[in-house]
Specification:
Strand order of the largest sheet: 1-2-3-6-5-4
Distance between the termini: 55 Å
Order of helices and strands: HEEEHEEEEEEEEEEHEEHHHHHHHHH
Number of strands: 15
Number of helices: 12
C-alpha cells in the first residue's frame, strides 16, 4: 500500500508545494514539513494534503494526533511572502513509512483539511490604490432554483455561444447582494480530452472596510436552507474565492455532508412552484431571520430535507424529530413554575419513598428508577402540544395519515415509538413504511410552511395533491 501511494504522489501534479508547520491541540508541533496540496478539479472532489517529512521529522510526527492544524508561507526570490496556506482543522487520514534499506526510508502523511485557506498576496506595486471593495463568489452545489437561464447557440463551424438571459439575485444583508451564475471550468479526462463543466456560484461584492467573507456564511447557510426546503434538494456552500487590492484567496469548506445530487430531480419535484420561488424566499427569509429564537425551526427544516430521496427507519425517526422540534417551539413552557415545581417534586419524592410498594432499603434501586422519571411530570404531553401547534397556526392535516389520532388505526407517533424501541417490522409493514414516511414528510412540510406564514395551497403538499392510497397501507400495521 505504501508503494502504491508513493507512485500516486509521483504521477499526480500538485497545485501547491511548500513547507508548513503541523501543530496538535496540546501544543506539539513539527516545523518545516514539505507539503503537496492537491485541490479538487470539481467542487465536490476531495482535497488532499500530502506531507513528506524527513526521517528526523518522522520521529517527531509519530505523535501528531488525529486532528491538527497547519500554517505555511511561500516566498518569492526576493524573500517576500507571496502565498499563505493555513487550516485550523486537518484530519490524519493515513500515514505510511516505506523502508528501502541502507537507512533510506520514505514517509507519507495524508491530511484531510476541513477549512483550508490559500491566500495569494498581490505585490503592492501592482495593487490598485483606493480600491477598498472585495469581490468574490461562493461555491454552491447544484440548485435548479438558483441556476441562471442560459441560451446556447451552436454553429456549423463547431463554435458554441452561451448567452445569459436571466440570473437570480438576492439581498443577503443590507449591503451585500448575491448574484447567481455559472463559472465554467476545464479538465482533462482519462483520454486526455479537454472537457468543460459549469459550477454554480453566488457572486458578491463587499464595500465595507470590514471585509470578512466568513461572516456572510451564517446568513448564506440560512438562505440555502430555505432554498433547499423549497426545492426538496439540498444545496450547500463548499467554499469561496475573493479578490481585492492585496490578495486573491480561496477557502475550501468541508465541515458539512456533501448532498446527493439526482439528475432526475426537476421542477416537477419541488415543494414550491418555480414561479413563486422569488416571492417565497424573500418572504420566508425575512420571517426566519427576524424570529427571536429560530434554532428549533432551523432544526426542523434541516430534518425535512434530510435524505429526501429515500425512506428508512432512521429517516423516519429523523423526520419525526423535526415535528418534535416544532412542538417544542410552540409549547416551551412547563406545567408548573420553577417555584411550584420545586415544592411539588419534594412532595412526589416523599410520596414515592413512603409508598407500600417502594418503602424500605431493599427498594432503594427501584425508587431511584422512578425518581429519574419525575422530570417528565412537568412536561406537556406530546399529543397536547401537537394539538396546540396545529390550533395556533390553523393547520389542517385531516387528509394525511394521523400523527396522534388513533381512532381508525395506527398513528405515525405509534410507528415512531416502535422504531425507536427497535421493534422488527413485518414485510408488509416495511412496505407500508414508505407511505407512512411520505405522509410524515408532508406533515412536517405543512407545519414548517405554516410557521413561515406561506400558504399551503401554494405548494405541492396542498390537499388536492395528496393520494388516499395510504389508507390501505395503514391497515398493514393493524
Amino acid at each position: 500500500m505504501s508503494i502504491m501511494i508513493g507512485l500516486d504522489v509521483k504521477e499526480k501534479k500538485e497545485d501547491y508545494r511548500l513547507h508548513v508547520s503541523l501543530k496538535g491541540d496540546e501544543g506539539h508541533s513539527v516545523k518545516n514539513v514539505l507539503c503537496k496540496i492537491y485541490l479538487p478539479k470539481r467542487l465536490t472532489d476531495p482535497i488532499e494534503l500530502y506531507f513528506l517529512p524527513t526521517k528526523e521529522q518522522t520521529e517527531e510526527s509519530w505523535s501528531i494526533p488525529f486532528n491538527f492544524s497547519i500554517y505555511g508561507e511561500r516566498k518569492d526570490r526576493s524573500g517576500k511572502v507571496n502565498t499563505i496556506v493555513q487550516a485550523n482543522e486537518v484530519y490524519n487520514k493515513d500515514m505510511s513509512v516505506t523502508e528501502w534499506g541502507d537507512g533510506v526510508s520514505e514517509t507519507l502523511l495524508i491530511g484531510d483539511p476541513v477549512d483550508l485557506k490559500i491566500s495569494n498576496l498581490i505585490s503592492q506595486s501592482k495593487a490598485e490604490k483606493g480600491n477598498d471593495s472585495l469581490k468574490g463568489s461562493f461555491w454552491l452545489t447544484p440548485s435548479i432554483m438558483l441556476s441562471p437561464k442560459k441560451q446556447i447557440k451552436r454553429s456549423f463551424t463547431g463554435k458554441v455561444n452561451v448567452k445569459t438571459v436571466g440570473r437570480f439575485e438576492f439581498q443577503l444583508i443590507s449591503d451585500v447582494t448575491l448574484s447567481f451564475d455559472y463559472h465554467y471550468k476545464f479538465s482533462k479526462n482519462e483520454n486526455e480530452d479537454t472537457i468543460s463543466f459549469p459550477e454554480l456560484v453566488a457572486e458578491f461584492e463587499i464595500k465595507s472596510k470590514e471585509k470578512d467573507v466568513n461572516k456572510l456564511l451564517g446568513p448564506l447557510d440560512d438562505f440555502l436552507l430555505l432554498t433547499s426546503f423549497a426545492e426538496r434538494q439540498r444545496c450547500v456552500c463548499l467554499g469561496w474565492d475573493s479578490v481585492d487590492s492585496y490578495s486573491y484567496t480561496h477557502f475550501f469548506r468541508r465541515y458539512m455532508r456533501i448532498p446527493q445530487i439526482l439528475r432526475s430531480h426537476n421542477f416537477n419535484a419541488t415543494l414550491i412552484f418555480t414561479k413563486d420561488f422569488s416571492k417565497f424566499i424573500i418572504s420566508t427569509y425575512k420571517k426566519f431571520t427576524e424570529a427571536k429564537d429560530n434554532k428549533l425551526l432551523r432544526q426542523a427544516i434541516q430534518r425535512a430535507i434530510y435524505s429526501l430521496h429515500e425512506m428508512s427507519h432512521n429517516v423516519f425517526l429523523t423526520l419525526f424529530s423535526g415535528i418534535e422540534s416544532l412542538v417544542l417551539l410552540a409549547h416551551k413552557e412547563s406545567i408548573l413554575s420553577p417555584t411550584e415545581w420545586k415544592e411539588f417534586k419534594k412532595y412526589v419524592k416523599a410520596f414515592i419513598k413512603e409508598s407500600p410498594h417502594l418503602k424500605g432499603e431493599k427498594n432503594k434501586n427501584r425508587r431511584t428508577l422512578i425518581y429519574e422519571k419525575i422530570p417528565a411530570l412537568n412536561e406537556v404531553a406530546f399529543s397536547t402540544a401537537f394539538k396546540k401547534l396545529c390550533s395556533d397556526y390553523k393547520i389542517d392535516l385531516s387528509d394525511l395519515w394521523p400523527v396522534i389520532d388513533k381512532k381508525k388505526g395506527v398513528t405515525l407517533y405509534a410507528i415512531r415509538n416502535r422504531l425507536i424501541h427497535g421493534d422488527v417490522l413485518s414485510f408488509q409493514e416495511e412496505h407500508s413504511l414508505v407511505w407512512a414516511g411520505s405522509h410524515l414528510r408532508w406533515t412536517l412540510e405543512r407545519l414548517i410552511l405554516s410557521i413561515l406564514e406561506w400558504p399551503i395551497v401554494d405548494s405541492r403538499v396542498s390537499f388536492y395533491n395528496v393520494s388516499d392510497k395510504w389508507i390501505e397501507a395503514r391497515k398493514a400495521f393493524g
